[in-house]
Amino acid sequence: MATLIAPSNHSSAEDAEALQKAFKGWGADDKTIIAILGHRNVHQRQQIRKAYEELHQEDLIKRLESEISGDFERAMYRWMLEPADRDAVLANVAIRNGKKDLHVIAEIACVLSAEELLAVRRAYRHRYKRSLEEDVAANTTGHLRQLLVGLVSSFRYEGDEINARLAQSEANILHETVKEKKGNYEEAIRILTTRSKTQLVATFNRYRDEHAISISKKLLDNQASDDFYKALHTAIRCINDHKKYYEKVLRNAIKKVGTDEDALSRVVVTRAEKDLRDIKELYYKRNSVHLEDAVAKETSGDYKKFLLTLLGKQD
Fold first, then answer.
1. Dihedral angle at the C-alpha atoms of 180, 182, 187, 188, nearest 10 degrees?
2. Residue 233: count of CB within 10 angstroms of its CB
3. With contact defined as beta carbons under 8 Å apart, do 39 and 6 qualify?
4. DSSP-based three-state secondary structure for 212
5. What is the distance between the alpha carbons of residues 276 and 242, in angstroms, rounded to a whole number?
6. CA 107 to CA 237: how far, in whole Å?
7. Which residue in 256, 260, 273 sits closest to 309, CA to CA?
8. Interhelix angle for 276-287 vs 291-298, to 10°?
9. pLDDT tens across 125-151, in order?
10. How does the average pLDDT of the chain come out, rounded?
11. 82-86, 176-180, 278-282, range with the lowest pLDDT
């Protein structure tokens, strides 16, 4: 369930005028910006952007970029984009950041539906005049390249059918791949990039039943520093249970020495209209601390107010 609290009725023209007033004078009225945009769903935000441009002959996003700054500006910029365009931007940022963030490519490719991923690829091509596959391939090598290009190129079947015998045989193939860095990497990549998510979950369950440990824990125990295995681990976790995956991303972002604002913003902004309430509940069960309290403790200023608004915290 979503955490975003948005009105059922609103006037995009009135919102656009209120934002214009918030931009006047010395320094923007950030409280008003958050009160409006932090409480509008994606459709409403696009209506406001259109109304603002019609009324003031200016792109609202560009105006926001000139009025606010820092982590608040980055989070707001991504919030204002349509989901496919936002994920295209996140993918490009991950590619430009290099090895430390390439697992985000696997995250995007494996959390989204087939149609959503296709929309991201189209948005990426429109924005950057290159294909996502092209940029991933140009910035990776070896098995990591094969895996990530395969994941972003995938158009998975989304039915509920399960082939139990296939799950057994492919669980064995994956076991060989994670065991002491041996096995048929190409076969493991083929399985992860072509099978339906339902079939893959059955394969992961079979692996756990056979080896008394989840494949994701086995990967984490043995191959944590390897870029290929890190991406493989992310793909498996996102396919298996993306909400648990996101809870851990938040936990790691907050508990770091110096909060990982980029990871924190990515999860809050991308999941606020989808399932952030469920992720919040998982966070509380795992950490005995409410996510809003953890975020409030580790962030400050308008960035903190904006994230708490998206998390559904009422003033």
1. 20
2. 23
3. yes
4. coil
5. 11
6. 9
7. 273
8. 80
9. 999 999 999 999 999 999 999 999 999
10. 94
11. 176-180
CA gap 269, 82 in Å, rounded: 11
CB count within 10 Å of CB 186 equals 12
Residue type, 130: R
In this structure, what token pair is assigned to residue 303?
Answer: 């960035």
Query: Distance (Å, rounded) from C-alpha 140 to C-alpha 57?
Result: 41
CB atoms within 10 A of CB 282: 19
DSSP for residue 1: -
pLDDT level of residue 220 (50, 70, 90 thresholds): confident
Distance, CA of 239 to chain centre: 13
Q: Tell me how far apart the alpha carbons of residues 21 and 268 are, in angstroms, rounded to a whole number.
A: 27
Contact status, residue 87 vs residue 108, Cβ threshold 8 Å: yes
Backbone phi and psi for residue 24, each to the nearest 5 degrees, phi listed first: -80, 155
127: which 2 tokens? 């924005």
Mean pLDDT of 99-113: 95
Indicate the residue type of 142: G
What is the value of pTM for the model shown? 0.95
Q: For residue 124, give both structure tokens.
A: 């990426």
Give the pLDDT mean for 252-279: 94
Tokens of 259: 């909060």
Give dist(CA 119, CA 52) in Å, integer: 26
Task: Count the residues in the chain.
Answer: 315
The pLDDT assigned to 225 comes to 63
Q: How far apart are CA 111 and CA 154, in angstroms?
A: 12
